[in-house]
């Protein structure tokens, strides 16, 4: 498929390899772990990487290739791999940038909690220094680069749960100015709203478990970048073996076909939900990236399309852990579950899930309170989602006032 097609056309069509004489509209699933070769010479060339093809499933699989091919076109990447999960994708990207013992990795404090833990434990124990900092102030960021001289920098396009947007084009030039490499986790924005490689980022990673798959039924990860990363990314997969299974690749690829309509509607629903909840005044704070009172609103307006401000809304309920537990237990429509990006609306409590391994001080420094919940907005009618959140919050308030009355 040629690169000249527009984004929604690519979503629907990209990554459909021709299989000889037959050309099915839906790619069959190839569970085969190995492939017969027509000749010994062909197998020899295949194993030597002289010709493209399939020999063993840890090296290549048609369903995985189709998915990676589609993602390469969407993110304008020259090479890419699919991994067993988003975590494996981040690990692979770090490996691809040649991070070695003695090196420093500079990480935005707002990245996914497990990413911080991966770097701090697995990479930290290998002798890599991990510096976790706030990247919103670019003068401070420049100082961090000069002081720490990192090999690699990691950040996310839309942070979680506070939905901060960093000035990625500026950050790219600062990072390259000190000879470092930038990995951008594009999970929350998808290639529909941000394509960091076009801004010069070195590698892009996705948890395909989220919006790309979109239906809460497949785990996977994607890493994309320029050709210079090709060998190391593929070596990582072959040797560490964190490959994506063919069925998962097929599900995620099928999810990709409808990403355009899903993500657009989910963003619209999120914006509408955020407005209703803001007006209801039942939450002490409503975070949405394009709201004028959001701390990084000016950057978000510049980097995000006006009608695609992301599909996540973060709410501060006020009160403490017991109040949030009661709120979660009162939800009827919204699922209290730990993921984002599904077609269903989901509510996550960072204190007990994504940020449970951070200390109260670390959470406070990040701006995450004990009464914040993150809403991943699905495809339901936003009015119904709002009703459910408001009734659950009201139930907490009512029981609070009953307690006060009893006293
Ligand atoms: C979920 C997530 C990950 C990890 O992905 P898994 O597929 O759960 O391994 C990484 N980054 C972000 C931003 C995520 O939301």
TrEMBL record:
Keywords: Pyridoxal phosphate
GO cellular component, one term: cytoplasm
EC number: 4.4.1.2
Family indicated by similarity: Belongs to the trans-sulfuration enzymes family.
The protein, known as: homocysteine desulfhydrase
Catalytic activity: L-homocysteine + H2O = 2-oxobutanoate + hydrogen sulfide + NH4(+) + H(+); L-methionine + H2O = methanethiol + 2-oxobutanoate + NH4(+)
Keyword Membrane (UniProt): no
Cofactor(s) listed: pyridoxal 5'-phosphate
Record GO terms (molecular function): homocysteine desulfhydrase activity; methionine gamma-lyase activity; pyridoxal phosphate binding
A Pfam family that the UniProt record links to this protein: Cys_Met_Meta_PP
Claim: Metal-binding is one of the keywords in the record: no
InterPro entries in the cross-refs: Cys/Met-Metab_PyrdxlP-dep_enz, Cys_met_metab_PP, PyrdxlP-dep_Trfase, PyrdxlP-dep_Trfase_major, PyrdxlP-dep_Trfase_small
Modified residues annotated as N6-(pyridoxal phosphate)lysine in this record: 210
PROSITE patterns cross-referenced by the UniProt entry: CYS_MET_METAB_PP
GO process annotations (BP): transsulfuration
Signal peptide per UniProt: none
Name of the top EC class for this enzyme: lyase
